[in-house]
Design brief:
The complex is a heterodimer of chains A (about 325) and B (about 290).
Chain A: H1 38-48, H2 61-64, H3 111-114, H4 116-122, H5 127-135, H6 138-147, H7 154-166, H8 174-179, H9 188-200, E1 216-218, H10 225-231, H11 245-248, E2 256-258, H12 280-292, H13 298-309
Antiparallel strand pairs in A: 1-2
Helix pairs in contact in A: 1-6, 1-7, 9-13, 12-13
Chain B: H1 2-34, H2 37-62, H3 70-79, H4 82-91, H5 97-148, H6 157-173, H7 177-196, H8 202-233, H9 235-285
The chains are: A mainly alpha (about 325), B mainly alpha (about 290).
């Protein structure tokens, strides 16, 4: 107001604590991979990369979830078989095994159930067709017979894939090392970013070992994301963007999504279910505005992004993006 | 006479041995089923522990002692195995029918409960955010209202904001219907102030944020407490306890059955051997 100097908004108090492994704290280190049958996981690895299983022979799981690109293809919308474009952005496959539900709308409670969606919608095929193709590959057929008493069945194909995905985790990020007591794992700026991540309240939804992936939340808590997107000239929300409403049919569940994990987030742009934010800085600013009702300063965004970069882990000893973290 | 005695001993001996063989077959079947006792009890106790963990973690999350939802998720994962366990027990025979039925009831109860559990987590996250930001939003608006001067619509909101703060604090402490009504009244007053502001007025956005936080606190605080109370009284815990009891009862029954069968087997084998022994003795005497 004219002639009225408003006091600046108080800086949120940031206190840097010693790293601890308190099971009640918001962020936890990533656990080790669950024990899986190596023979079954090996079959899953072959299936994961096998494009011949799709309708037009061009698309495999690795097409949208390439392991040398941190488990996501870097596109706003992935391209499936027969020119199909996925309606929503593809999240990373890494650490997916730790999510409480699968798919943006959280419709699936297990990986095995979730596979139905990409098989039919992205690979444009059916399980019967996939089973038949596998049986026609002698070495794969033999591998199934050796690992599963029933041989090639849809349930066993799903199991093999799920067991392989169980192995796709990225432990030992610098942040995990910090939580386990390595005081030098994070720089001062990254530590400040971590503490700001907590005091701003990002951690109310992005918590747990997977820094998200364990609850539902509305996109647009303080401001209407979709209304403002339309005002900016963007599209109105489509059926696939209704989120949890698709399964519960409760109006309150419109635009409520499974909160994504922030593990390796620095390596997996673009961001949000519609891939609308190209950079992590933009995504952090948008989240501050939409979910917290705050306009974050440049400095705040910078340190939070610095912290998020420390969530980059190493997959089986190598960088999930195929380069330096 | 001697022939009759011989025939009698032979009959008793053969009959005893045949009966013993039959009992051995039954004993083997019961024994095979009973041998699953260690893993069955481990699984059932895991379900009981998981249910207790779920209830404890919901309460701790509500109290602010548990800041991540992973333990709730892990408990749910274990509880979901009840369906599979029920199916497995049914294949083992009617002796476990009651246990399987209790586990099926547990699965159904959990399925009915899961949507509310997910809402609880979502609501709790929103309440935490709203509680954190409400004071900041109120401070900012109060300051604006003070600076605005008497002629600006926002100035009239100053007293309403102060009243709102008081009621929010009281409601967060103890969500009673009376305080909820007063909060609603304060919100209505601020809605009127909001309505009087111009679209480009900077206070408008701040006011909307404040009202948003307040409504989040109002709608979620009591709902969260209600869910936590309901969970503790939910039938799921009773179902898993009933499953454990039914299983133990079935296992004890099987143990008694095995003891009887084995004793009977011993008696019949002894009788058979004795009878056949006498039969042989008769034959050699002749």
């Amino acid at each position: 107001m004219q002639g009225c100097d408003l006091a600046p908004e108080p800086e949120l108090a940031v206190q840097v604590d010693e790293p601890t492994l308190d099971p009640g704290q918001a962020l936890q280190p990533l656990p080790t991979a669950p024990r899986v049958d190596p023979a079954r996981a090996a079959i899953g690895a072959r299936l994961y990369a096998d494009a011949t299983l799709s309708a037009d022979g061009t698309v495999s799981c690795a097409t949208c979830h390439p392991l040398d690109r941190a488990g996501a293809d870097g596109l706003a919308h992935s391209r499936g078989a027969n020119g199909i474009e996925t309606p929503l952005n593809t999240p990373t496959i890494y650490n997916a095994t730790f999510n409480f539900r699968f798919n943006w709308n959280g419709a699936y409670t297990s990986l095995e159930d979730e596979f139905d969606a990409p098989i039919t919608k992205t690979m444009d095929t059916t399980w019967q067709a996939i089973d038949a193709k596998i049986r026609n590959q002698p070495s794969l057929n033999a591998a199934f017979s050796a690992a599963y008493p029933e041989g090639v069945t849809t349930a066993n194909v799903k199991d093999a894939l799920a067991r392989y995905i169980d192995t796709l985790i990225t432990p030992d990020s610098r942040f995990d090392q910090y939580l386990r007591g390595d005081h030098d794992a994070l720089s001062a700026s990254e530590l400040r970013g971590y503490e700001l991540f907590k005091t701003l309240g990002c951690v109310t939804c992005h918590q747990g070992a997977n820094v998200g992936g364990n609850l539902f939340q509305r996109l647009g808590v303080m401001h209407d994301y979709f209304e403002e997107r339309v005002q900016r000239g963007g599209p109105a929300p489509n059926q696939d963007e209704l989120g949890r409403f698709e399964t519960t049919h409760q109006v309150a569940d419109r635009y409520v999504f499974r909160v994504p994990s922030l593990r390796n987030v620095a390596l997996t742009p673009p961001y949000f279910h519609d891939g609308s934010s190209a950079t992590l800085d933009q995504a952090v600013a948008k989240m501050g505005y939409l979910q917290l009702g705050r306009t974050l300063t440049t400095e705040q965004i910078k340190v939070v992004v610095a912290f998020l970069k420390t969530l980059t882990g190493l997959a089986n000893g190598s960088d999930p993006a195929g380069g330096a973290p | 006479m001697k022939n009759r005695s011989l025939r009698a001993w032979l009959s008793v001996g053969v009959a005893s041995v045949v009966l013993a063989a039959g009992i051995a077959v039954v004993e083997r079947r019961v024994s095979r089923v009973a041998s699953n006792y260690p893993q069955d009890t481990t699984q059932l106790r895991a379900l009981l522990v998981a249910r207790s963990e779920l209830e404890r973690n919901v309460l701790e999350a509500r109290a602010g002692l548990q800041l991540n939802f992973d333990p709730i998720h892990h408990a749910v994962l274990v509880l979901r195995t009840a369906t599979q366990e029920a199916r497995l027990l049914r294949t083992r025979g009617a002796v476990y029918a009651q246990t399987a039925a209790a586990l099926t009831q547990l699965s159904e109860a959990l399925k009915a409960e899961e949507p509310a559990l997910e809402n609880f987590k979502t609501d709790l996250a929103l309440l935490r955010l709203a509680s954190r930001y409400f004071p900041l939003a109120a401070d900012a608006l109060t300051q604006r209202a003070t600076c605005a001067g008497d002629k600006h619509p926002a100035a009239h909101g100053g007293a309403a904001i102060a009243e709102l703060r008081t009621y929010v604090e009281r409601y967060e402490d103890q969500p009673t219907p009376e305080i909820a009504r007063r909060l609603e009244a304060a919100l209505a007053e601020l809605d009127a102030v909001l309505g009087a502001l111009q679209a480009d007025d900077p206070e408008r956005a701040d006011m909307k944020v404040l009202l948003g936080h307040t409504r989040a606190i109002l709608s979620r605080r009591e709902r969260l407490d209600r869910f936590a109370r309901t969970l503790a009284r939910a039938p799921a815990h009773r179902h898993v306890e009933a499953a454990v009891r039914a299983y133990e009862h079935a296992a004890r029954g099987q143990l008694v059955q095995l003891t009887v069968l084995r004793s009977l087997f011993g008696v019949l084998v002894t009788l058979g051997l004795v009878a056949l022994g006498f039969a042989v003795k008769h034959t050699t005497r002749r």
